[in-house]
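COMPLEX REQUEST
Ligand: zinc ion
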Amino acid sequence: MSAPILESVLTCPKCGFAKAESMPTDACQFYYECTRCGALLRPNPGDCCVFCSFGSVKCPPMQAKRR
Ligand SMILES: [Zn+2]
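STATUS: Structure written out below.
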């Protein structure tokens, strides 16, 4: 079992701005505010958090589930 990746690059769907953010291992982040345009991002239907929808890496709980 490999350790989860704790950093994900979030890309804003509105302005395309990408920023590396660290992910908490014990919680899912539901909201994320773009630091450039201020857009409030929410997960797509079926995704548990913004990292699953807009991040380069899915959140740690999803990484653990995927085999
Ligand atoms: Zn933005």
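REMARKS: The longest strand covers residues 7-11. The first helix runs from residue 50 to 54.
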